[in-house]
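Q: Structure for this?
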Amino acid sequence: MGSSIAEAHNVRVLGAGDTVVVLGHGFGTDQSVWKHLIPHLVDCYKVIVYDHMGAGTTNPDYFDFDRYSTLEGFAYDLLAILEEFRVHKCIYVGHSLSSMAGALASIFRPDLFHKLIMLSASPRILEFDLMNYEEDIDELCGAMESNYKSWVSGFAPLVVGGDMDSVAVQEFSRTLFNMRPDIALSMFRMIFTFDLRHFLGCVTVPCHIIQSSKDLAVPVAVAEYLHQNLGGKSIVEVVPTEGHLPQLSSPELTIPVLLRHIQHDIVDGDC
Amino acid sequence: MESLDHVFVEFRPQPPQLHRYQGETEEDGCYGDDFIHAHSPQLDESLDAYGCGYAHELREQKEVDSSPSSLVVQIGYSCAGARDFDCFSERGMVNEMLCDKLEMKLSTYSISETKSETNEAIDGDAAYSEIGNRSNPAIGLPRAQDLSCEKIVGVLVALPQKEVAHSFIKWRKENYINGKVDLVLPDEINEKSNKTKIEFFFTVGVLALRQLYFDFHLPAWPPPPGPPSATSPDVILSNIIAAVSDVRSRNSAALACRKWCLLERATRAAVSLRGNLRDLFTVPNCFPSVSSLDLSLLSPWGHPLSSASDPALIAHVLRHAFPSLSSLTFYARNLSTIQLVASQWRTAEHVKLVRWHQRPQISPPSTAGPTTFRRLSRQAYPSLALNLTRLDIEGLKSDEIKAITCPNLIEFKAARRFDLSLPLLEELGLDICNNVRDSGAAFEVLNSRCPKLRSLKLGFFHGISMPIESKLDGVALCQGLKSLSIRNVGDLDDMGLIGIVSCCSNLPARQCLKALEPIQDRIKRLHIDCIWDSAQELEDDSDGVGFDLNCLDQDNGFDDDGMSKERKRCKYSYDLNMELDVNSNGYGNNVRTWDKLEYLSLWIAVGQLLTPLVEAGLDHCPNIEEIRIKVEGDCREMSRPREREFGLSMLVNYPKLWKMHLDCGDTIGYAHTAPSGQMDLSLWGRFYLIGIGHLNLTELDYWPPQDRDVNQRSLSLPAAGLLQECFGLRKLFIHGTAHEHFMMFLLRITELRDVQLREDYYPAPENDMSTEMRADSCSRFEAALNRRRISD
């Protein structure tokens, strides 16, 4: 049943063009984060958008706790969608953790990716972003656990990410609290364990790293780290925006940058 | 009989009237255009035109088409009852025990509105025969063995004609061996209102339905004509059931026995379908007479008919189930739905296209100039001045007016343009010891010319506030006033004062309530702005001084933003209308309570707490059943509140409260991460909903707060968690979107039967993919909801 993948991921194919652009949203959001970008693409590109499994917009029953205990599960999903829609080459735009899932997928199948565009990406979220907030992380763990327990026992889960003092942790936890508590807990563990730093060298397709100048969840230093350690060509552009979802919160600044990177490839002099 | 539970199904009958769907659906926040066309070709044209965006022209055409001759088919009752999915019980006391016996599956489909065909109301004889033809001649009052209830204890029938009483007596003897049938003859009925009472007493096993009480009147009750059948119970019953407009009552009647069920089906004229679009092929076909069908409330809410997997099949099934449609209501945002419908119902005469996402109405600027004064003299001739006793002028500049000297002038009217334009004027006293009539418009101009006016003292001015329904005028529009003193005003009535007071957005609630003390035991409906006094004022204002319009300058935090005031005026101007019950005892009670208060509407600024409400005077309200709370403001300007909760728990003081509108839709904040020190919307949602589980609510409408930047109004995790604690909730409408797993929390509410996400706001989400709720998610939730056993 081919269409089950499309249905499970709420895949939409829009626009027409020879080049395929695939948009992967970050965790805790869904494909609607691309709503400002899509209208600019549909005239020239074939655009594929989808929801990650475990996003609030997907059927929680489809969430396989084993498969998605590592980032590979999400990378495999991406490859499955590309195969389902017979995409032989694409430009992949990934936001946040999805850009890492895309990077992983490109290690498995570099032939499928013309280039990766990474928005607010980080290969090891805790190491870089949240190491200064150990207390907050502990509190967040407690909140996750208590929410999970209360969810199981039928009491209201009332602790949410916004309770944390650190804005970075708030942003990070938002991704988790938008999911069903058991899924969120699983995701939480996955995020704690995933570490792509040692695999960055294996990423050979060109990478465009786009980064908010003020993103408390992913500091600019991370973009530089990616640039230094990726195995292929890469380029960094820092956009003067705030927040972790610049494509949603500051589309007027972010969308042109994204479009430019989609339309133009890195030339050797750039990197 | 003492042990019986009593269930009252009260009708608020209205005289036959033009069936204006617009009016009744507005209650649900639905806005639509009426299209009335005699022939289908015109309909097609109009539908095409609608698709092309010419709706406004058609609306004008409607006025032309609505000539009396074309109205016949649209005469009907407007249903005063709620558009209820829960079609059996008014307060959840009557149960749905007989649901199984119905052929239709109420869990999937329910009939939420009905309008009885009442052609007979216009033309007694003709309609009478029509009813007779339509109903099965064999249908009549039920025989005991036909009744699905075990034993009928008694029937109380009140009839407007003595002649038919004998039929009932006979019928009683035949069918009710141990029962009791009481007849109330016309003399005992309030003939003036043409009221007819019918009471049916049932005992149905051990279940809850004990007594059903109908109280309605039959307009244009057909006089008993010659044929004996005219006075038979069959026809009477047919007429009675045809006249019942309340959907729950109709369903109750249909449950009495098979024959009644058939009779009810045969006379059902209008149906509103709920349930999911994808299940439409199971639509009941037991309503062959339905002429008016409403498809606009199908789930997923706000999805057009054309989004079904096989729209043509659905349309065909619907046409098969409702063959005699003449009026159709559906949701449409594009042409395909309209084409689909037009292809199936070519005979439709009345089509209503629902647009849920109405742009907010931008209020016209205050253009109410001194039109009332454009009557008289263009020029004032000084030579006449000596003899003048009445002067009514317009268009003179102030220095010209100053030149007028009329020693005998008694009445002076000047359409003052306030050309002096005193932008700095803050205080104005006008007491000329002569009567000034129709002065309202002048104060509107004054307000526009003197924006800083804070204090106004008037004497002998009349017509300063003469609101027409919700449209305010005159001094009520002087938004900047902090102090208003009115002396010797001859024509200021209750509504005028209400108009003024309702615009006083900064009136401390406590003082407002104090002002209402003399009539508080007569007020049924009350709106109040929750402007809390400072603590100091609470302390020193305990001497019971009455409400004084001169003392209004105590409040702080006055807002100079004229725009927001203007908006607010339009929004709330209609709110403070009380319904006074003239039968009450009135004065004389030392301990005043809000005994009559049934409906309370509150406006409260974001971040303010509800808790002072009791302290402010709304402490003893034993009969409040419904409350509407509107929270408005920008959270982004606020730091984290000190209190953890808004204070809904204090509403447990109102023991009869069962229905709530909690509207945070105009509360604006950050859907995503908030800056440091502020709260995002999930926390604001939690702030407002904490404690809602303590209230014994049956119905809830909840508007989540919104983030305008990302066009998101979403149910947050804490909101879902808190809503699931409302154990008695039966009906929940969320005016926003929600993730599927948040919705699944709600399944823990065992009583919950009717849930819908309604994106009835502007701008609507662009499409299914730009919300948190996919159509599939919605269907899975509804399936889970309908799978549950209904405990009662």
